[in-house]
C-alpha cells in the first residue's frame, strides 16, 4: 500500500530523512517510532505530498505521488501534528467544508464521522473554543471523512489526557482492522498498545523494523535478575553467585539488606533460590528484568539523541 | 487539462469569503472603506459642486492600495502561522486550485467593497448627467485594479507568516506601482518609459478617462498572472 524507495529529504546541509526504504502492506497499524527530530514528521509529510522528497520515490497503491498527487491525496487521510484546523469555523461548518473538498454530498457521512470521533455534542461550537482533545478529534474527523484507505497520523495522542488517549487509541485500533494506518509517536507504550508493526527511525534512518511482538523477543538481552537478600554477608553472596552467574553486582541497599543484580546466559532464578536456601539467606525479592521497548529504544538510538 | 490543473477553486473561494464576511475584520474594513470613499465623493459633490464620479475614481487607487492588502493579508499568512497550510496542501487540491481559489475570494471581497459606490452613481444621476463612458471605464479599471492588487496581496501573504508584515509590505508594493506614475517627471529617458509601463496609475488613468484599450487590459491581466505565479513559486520554495 505504501512504498518508500530511497527516500531522502535534505534541508541545506542537514539530512532529515536519509535514504529510507520501506514497504507497508494493506491493513494493520504501523508505528513510526523515534526520538524528536528523527525524521518522523518529515517522512509523513513526503508520504502525504505536503512537500516533495529531495530524492527517492513515494508510491501509494501503485501511484507515484510526484506524478499524480491529487489521486494519492484522495485516498489518504492525514492528521498533522497538533491538528491545525481553522479556528474561526464551527465544527459542523468545518466538516461540511471538508466534505465538499472531497465532493461528498449530503450530511450522512458528516453525521457518521462526527459520531465516530465523538464530536456530536460540539457540532455547533467554534473550533477555537474547543479543548485540545476536541480539536484533535476534529482533525481526526478531517482525516476520516472521505473514508480513506490509508490513514496517516502524526502523534495522534499528543497533548491529550489519559481518558482521551484511550478513546483515540481504541478508535485507531477499530480503523486499523479495515484500513492501513501509519502513526508516529515518541511514546513507547503507545506502540506496544496499538501497533502491529513498529519501525524505529533515528537520524533519518531505519534502526529497526519488526512486528511489535517479535521486537521484545529479538532484542532480549539475556536473563537479568535483581534480588534482595537479608541475613547475608556481601562477600559470601558474591562468591556463591559467581559459580553460576556471568556478572554479579552486590551492594548494601539499606541496613542489612543486600541488593543483587546478576545476569547469565540462562535463567538463574532457581539456582539463586537453592543457593539462598542452603546458605540460610532470606530472599526478600527476586525479579526477572524484562527487556522493555524503552531499553530497546535506548540501545538502538544511542539514548543521547534528544535533540 | 485545464480542469486537471485548476480543478474546482470555487470550494476554497466560498470558504474564504464566508469566513471573512463573518469576522469582525470585515466590518471594520468595509465600513472604513465606505467612510473614506464617501468622504472623497461628497467632498467633490458638495464642495466642488461636481456631479460626477471623477473625483472618486481619481482617489480609488489610493484607497484600494490600503484596503485590498487588508483583505488579503490573512489569506496565506494565517495558514502559515497556524500550520493549517499543511492540511490545505495535503487535501486533494492542486496548488493552482488553492491560489486561484484564494485570489477569487479576494477579488469577490474587493468588488463587494466597491459595490456600494453605485449609490453615488444614483446620486449623480439624480442631480446631473452621468457620463456613461467614464463610468463604465472607471468601473472596469477598478475591477482590474482590484485583481492586480489582490494578486500582489496574495503573493506577499504567501511568503510571510506574519499578517502585519503581509499588510505593510503589500501596501508598500501597491503604493509603489501607483506612485511610480507621479515620479515620472523627475526621471529621464528610457527609465521613465519602463516605469510608465509598469505603473498601475498610468494604465488606470486611461480607463478612468473612458478609454478602454486592449493594451491596458493586457497589462493588468499579465501583471496579475505574474504575481500569482510568484505566489506559487513562493509557496513551493517555503513548504
Task: Give the SSE map.
The complex is a heterodimer of chains A (307) and B (239).
Chain A: E1 2-11, E2 14-24, E3 28-33, H1 40-47, E4 55-60, E5 63-64, H2 69-75, E6 76-79, H3 91-101, H4 108-116, H5 132-144, E7 150-154, H6 162-176, E8 180-185, H7 188-194, E9 197-202, E10 205-211, H8 212-218, E11 223-230, H9 234-242, E12 247-254, E13 257-264, H10 269-279, E14 282-288, H11 293-301
Parallel strand pairs in A: 3-8, 3-9, 6-7, 7-8
Antiparallel strand pairs in A: 1-2, 1-4, 4-5, 9-10, 11-13, 11-14, 12-13
Chain B: H1 2-6, H2 10-21, H3 24-47, H4 54-82, H5 85-89, H6 95-114, H7 118-127, H8 132-158, H9 163-183, H10 189-198, H11 200-208, H12 214-238
Helix pairs in contact in B: 2-6, 3-4, 4-6, 4-8, 4-9, 4-11, 6-8, 8-9, 8-11, 8-12
User: Per CATH, which architecture of the largest domain in chain A?
Assistant: 3-Layer(aba) Sandwich
CA gyration radius of chain A, whole angstroms: 25 Å
**What form of chain B results from the Cα inertia axes?**
globular
Question: What fraction of the residues of chain B are assigned to beta strands by DSSP?
Answer: under 5%
Q: Can you tell me the number of structural domains of chain A?
A: 2
Biggest sheet of chain A, open or closed, and with what strands and sense? Answer: 6 strands, mixed
As a percent range, the share of helical residues of chain B equals over 70%
Question: Between the first and last Cα atoms of chain B, what is the distance in angstroms?
Answer: 25 Å
The helix/strand series of chain B, from N terminus to C terminus, equals: HHHHHHHHHHHH
Q: Please mark out the parts of chain B with pLDDT under 50 across 5 or more consecutive residues, or reply none.
A: none
Mean pLDDT of chain A: 85
Largest interface: A-B, 26 and 19 residues
Figure out the total of helices of chain B. Answer: 12
Oligomer: heterodimer
Strand coverage percent of chain A: 25-35%
Report the C-alpha radius of gyration of chain B, rounded. 18 Å
Label the structural class of chain A: alpha/beta
CATH topology value of the largest domain in chain A: Rossmann fold
**H/I helix tally of chain A:** 11
Amino acid at each position: 500500500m505504501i512504498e518508500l524507495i530511497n527516500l531522502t529529504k535534505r534541508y541545506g546541509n542537514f539530512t532529515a530523512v536519509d535514504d529510507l526504504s520501506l514497504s507497508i502492506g494493506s491493513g494493520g497499524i504501523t508505528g513510526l517510532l523515534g526520538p524528536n527530530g528523527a525524521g518522523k514528521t518529515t517522512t509523513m509529510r513526503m508520504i502525504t505530498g505536503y512537500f516533495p522528497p529531495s530524492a527517492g520515490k513515494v508510491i501509494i497503491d501503485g501511484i507515484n505521488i510526484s506524478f499524480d498527487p491529487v489521486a494519492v491525496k484522495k485516498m489518504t487521510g492525514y492528521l498533522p501534528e497538533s491538528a491545525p484546523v481553522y479556528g474561526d469555523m464551527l465544527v459542523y461548518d468545518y466538516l461540511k467544508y471538508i466534505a465538499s473538498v472531497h465532493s461528498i454530498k449530503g450530511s450522512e457521512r458528516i453525521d457518521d464521522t462526527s459520531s465516530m470521533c465523538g464530536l456530536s455534542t460540539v457540532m455547533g461550537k467554534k473550533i477555537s473554543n474547543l479543548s485540545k482533545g476536541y480539536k484533535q478529534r476534529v482533525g481526526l474527523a478531517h482525516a476520516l471523512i472521505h473514508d480513506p484507505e490509508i490513514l496517516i497520523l502524526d502523534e495522534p495522542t499528543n497533548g491529550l489526557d489519559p481518558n482521551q488517549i484511550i478513546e483515540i487509541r481504541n478508535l485507531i485500533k477499530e480503523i486499523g482492522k479495515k484500513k492501513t494506518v501509519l502513526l508516529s509517536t515518541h511514546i513507547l507504550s503507545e506502540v506496544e498498545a496499538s501497533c502491529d508493526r513498529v519501525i524505529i527511525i533515528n537520524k533519518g534512518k531505519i534502526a529497526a523494523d519488526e512486528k511489535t511482538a517479535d521486537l521484545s523477543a529479538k532484542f532480549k538481552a539475556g536473563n537479568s535478575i535483581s534480588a534482595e537478600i537479608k541475613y547475608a554477608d556481601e562477600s559470601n553472596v558474591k562468591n556463591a553467585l559467581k559459580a553460576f552467574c556471568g556478572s554479579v553486582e552486590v551492594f548494601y541497599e539499606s541496613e542489612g539488606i543486600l541488593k543483587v543484580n546478576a545476569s547469565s546466559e540462562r535463567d538463574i532464578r532457581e539456582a539463586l533460590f537453592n543457593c539462598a536456601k542452603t546458605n540460610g539467606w532470606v530472599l526478600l525479592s527476586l525479579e526477572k528484568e524484562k527487556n522493555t521497548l524503552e531499553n530497546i529504544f535506548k540501545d538502538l538510538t544511542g539514548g543521547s539523541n534528544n535533540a | 487539462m485545464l480542469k486537471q490543473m485548476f480543478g474546482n477553486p470555487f470550494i476554497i473561494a466560498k470558504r474564504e469569503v464566508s469566513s471573512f464576511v463573518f469576522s469582525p475584520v470585515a466590518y471594520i474594513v468595509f465600513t472604513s472603506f465606505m467612510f473614506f470613499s464617501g468622504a472623497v465623493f461628497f467632498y467633490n459633490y458638495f464642495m466642488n459642486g461636481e456631479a460626477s464620479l471623477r473625483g472618486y475614481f481619481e482617489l480609488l487607487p489610493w484607497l484600494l492600495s490600503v484596503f485590498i492588502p487588508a483583505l488579503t493579508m490573512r489569506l496565506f499568512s494565517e495558514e502559515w502561522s497556524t500550520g493549517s497550510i499543511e492540511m490545505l496542501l495535503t487535501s486533494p487540491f492542486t496548488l493552482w486550485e488553492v491560489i486561484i481559489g484564494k485570489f477569487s475570494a479576494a477579488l469577490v471581497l474587493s468588488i463587494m467593497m466597491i459595490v456600494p459606490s453605485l449609490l453615488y452613481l444614483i446620486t449623480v444621476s439624480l442631480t446631473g448627467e452621468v457620463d456613461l463612458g467614464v463610468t463604465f471605464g472607471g468601473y472596469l479599471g477598478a475591477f482590474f485594479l482590484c485583481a492586480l492588487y489582490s494578486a500582489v496581496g496574495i503573493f506577499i501573504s504567501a511568503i510571510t507568516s506574519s499578517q502585519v508584515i503581509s499588510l505593510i509590505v503589500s501596501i508598500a508594493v501597491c503604493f509603489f506601482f501607483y506612485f511610480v506614475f507621479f515620479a515620472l517627471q523627475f526621471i529621464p529617458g528610457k527609465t521613465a518609459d519602463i516605469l510608465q509601463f509598469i505603473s498601475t496609475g498610468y494604465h488606470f488613468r486611461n480607463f478612468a478617462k473612458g478609454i478602454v484599450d486592449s493594451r491596458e487590459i493586457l497589462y493588468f491581466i499579465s501583471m496579475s498572472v505574474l504575481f500569482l505565479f510568484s505566489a506559487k513559486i513562493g509557496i513551493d520554495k517555503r513548504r
